Every structure is written in C-alpha cells, then in structure tokens.
C-alpha cells in the first residue's frame, strides 16, 4: 500500500512509497483511510524530538489521527463492523495514518460524527482528546471558572475554546491581530492580541491555563493564576510522572524531573499545580466528543486540505505555525 514515511530522523525527510499491508490483530479494526490530519506532533516526531520517549523503528509511517471506513475487524472486535464510518487518534506506539490503510486497536476508535465529512472528522481526534484530557480529566473545569487557552487559533486552541465554553467557563485566549474577531466567534470571552498586549499584564486570578507555547509564555502564565490554580502544558517540559507513565527507564525519569524542576518549583511557590500532558488515544472519550459535535456544541475548524501526494508540503505548512485550525491530508 502507499504511505508517507521517513527512513531516518530529520526535518526535511519523508517520501511516498510502498509499505507492507497491515494485518489486523484480534482486537484491531482495519481502516481504509479517507483523510488524516497533520499535527505539530508529526513534525516533532519527524525531526527526532521524541526519539527518547517514543523509540520508533524505520521506515516510519507518520500520522496520528484519521477518519475512514472499516474494511475488516479482528476476531475479538465487538463494537465495529465492515462499512462503519469511524475516526481515531491511533495509539502512539502504532502511528501511521498517512497511509491508504491502518490497523487500529478497537479501544482507540469511535464512530464518526454523522454531521461531519471525512475531512472534517479527521481534524478532530488528536486535538479534541488533548482539550478533553486537559480541561475535563486534569483541570476538572467547572462552570464559572476562568481559563486561559494560549494560541486560540491553533488546532488545539480552536477546540479547547469551544469545549471550555460548553463546560460553562469564562474563556480568555491569546492570538494575533488578524484572528481576534475570529476567536471571539469561537466563543472566547477575552482575547489578548499578543502583538499589542502582554497577557500577564492584562489577566488575573485565573483558575486554569492551557499552554502550548514556549518557556517564556509558560513562566509568565504563573502570573495570571490564582493560588490553587493549575498550569497544564502540552509543549513541555515533561515530568518524571509522565516518564513513569510511559514506562521509561529510571535515568530518563530523572532527566524529565530535571527538565521540569524550575517550572515546578516556581509553581509550587505560588501554590499552583503544574502538569505536563501527552495525550493518549481513547475511543470512549472520542465517542463523548462525537455526541457534542452532533449536538452542535463543537465544530472542527479547517485551514487547508492537501492531496496525499503533497503530504510533505502539508507538514512544512504546519511547521510555519500560521494555520488557523487544522490542516488535512486527503488520502482517498
């Protein structure tokens, strides 16, 4: 089958070629991929940024989430059948959605929202599960609480704003001048134009911050949180707890502990809890997100769609950091 893969780590690596067909295991569904989304994570994996955490072998097919149709199911699969339209964030150890077909463990899969196209559905899994696990699982965001979501026009930001509003929170976000009105339309109550304002001077007494940006933004986010608040970062630095959950060796756990030591100390001084989130595949949560999408509470935001043959261009476009919403690769 055709797939977009890398033979080694490096920013400009990647090509389309033939790879072996997937043979579904007893608990797998084999999905004919119609569309896949391009995430910053794909770029980081390609460059080798996660090679200590996720030790992949080559050739490595990229791609972390997709939408498509089930064409075969394993003997132990109960909830899906051939012909089902589905979507999934595939487990991190079995990535590879930039391909014509992929076998995915059934617990990572959910039925596609009936009101979305394949391209729209492919835009959802990774970013929506990230937002869900940050705001629902970790933050336990409550009605009336105040949350700051950085990079509101990005893939995670566009969904996190909508989810936080659904949960009843007061939502602030940061974005560029051109996107101010656009993120307000998504539901943001307070918008900080980072080109003209400093969010740490404008905002106070927030309960939660969801960070997807760099170290300076992370540390300045402490200034807007009240005692007892939570700082959740999906861009690092990782913690020893994360390393343990990943099953990493003791030396790597200590490396992660040191990497996050500074921000954890600063947070603790202000009675703030710091958490690093590396989202995980979860079909049950994705099914809950399906319910919200079909009810009109959450809508995908698409920036551009690329042909399969242009998957490399799609990755380069995402690396520029200017996409409004999600970038899609149309496989079928």
UniProtKB/TrEMBL annotation:
Annotated InterPro entries: ADH-like_N, ER, GroES-like_sf, NAD(P)-bd_dom_sf, Quin_OxRdtase/zeta-crystal_CS, YIM1/Zinc_Alcohol_DH_Fams
Domain (Enoyl reductase (ER)) ranges: 10-329
SMART domains: PKS_ER
Domain of life: Bacteria
Gene3D superfamilies given in the database record: Medium-chain alcohol dehydrogenases, catalytic domain, NAD(P)-binding Rossmann-like Domain
Keyword tags: Oxidoreductase
PANTHER family, sorted: ALCOHOL DEHYDROGENASE RELATED, RETICULON-4-INTERACTING PROTEIN 1, MITOCHONDRIAL
Protein name, as recorded: NADP-dependent oxidoreductase
Species in which this protein is naturally found: Pseudomonas tensinigenes
Taxonomic lineage: Bacteria, Pseudomonadati, Pseudomonadota, Gammaproteobacteria, Pseudomonadales
């Amino acid at each position: 089958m055709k797939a977009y893969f890398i033979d080694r780590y490096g920013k400009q690596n990647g090509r389309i070629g033939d790879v072996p067909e997937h043979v579904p295991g007893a608990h797998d569904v084999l999905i004919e991929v119609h569309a896949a989304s391009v995430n910053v994570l794909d770029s980081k994996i390609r460059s080798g940024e996660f090679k200590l955490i996720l030790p992949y072998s080559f050739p490595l097919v990229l791609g972390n989430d997709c939408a498509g149709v089930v064409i075969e199911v394993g003997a132990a699969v109960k909830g899906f059948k051939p012909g089902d339209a589905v979507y999934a964030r595939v487990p991190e150890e079995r990535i590879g959605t930039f391909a014509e077909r992929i076998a995915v463990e059934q617990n990572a899969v959910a039925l596609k929202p009936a009101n979305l196209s394949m391209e729209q559905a492919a835009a959802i899994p990774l970013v929506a599960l990230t937002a869900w696990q940050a705001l629902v699982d970790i933050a336990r965001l409550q009605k009336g609480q105040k949350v700051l979501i950085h990079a509101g026009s990005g893939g995670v930001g566009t969904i996190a704003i909508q989810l936080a509003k659904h949960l009843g929170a007061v939502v602030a976000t940061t974005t560029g001048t051109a996107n101010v009105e656009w993120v307000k339309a998504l539901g943001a109550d307070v918008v900080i134009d980072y080109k003209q304002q400093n969010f740490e001077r404008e905002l106070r007494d927030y309960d939660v911050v969801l960070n997807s940006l760099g170290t300076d933004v992370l540390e300045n986010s402490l200034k807007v949180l009240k005692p007892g608040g939570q700082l959740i970062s999906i861009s690092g630095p990782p913690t020893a707890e994360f390393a343990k959950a990943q099953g990493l060796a003791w030396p790597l756990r200590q490396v992660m502990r040191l990497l996050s030591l500074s921000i954890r100390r600063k947070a603790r001084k202000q009675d703030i809890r710091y958490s690093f989130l590396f989202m995980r595949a979860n079909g049950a949560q994705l099914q809950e997100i399906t319910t919200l999408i079909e009810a009109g509470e959450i809508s995908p935001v698409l920036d551009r769609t690329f042909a399969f043959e242009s998957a490399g261009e799609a990755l380069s476009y995402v690396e520029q950091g200017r996409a409004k919403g999600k970038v899609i690769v149309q496989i079928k």
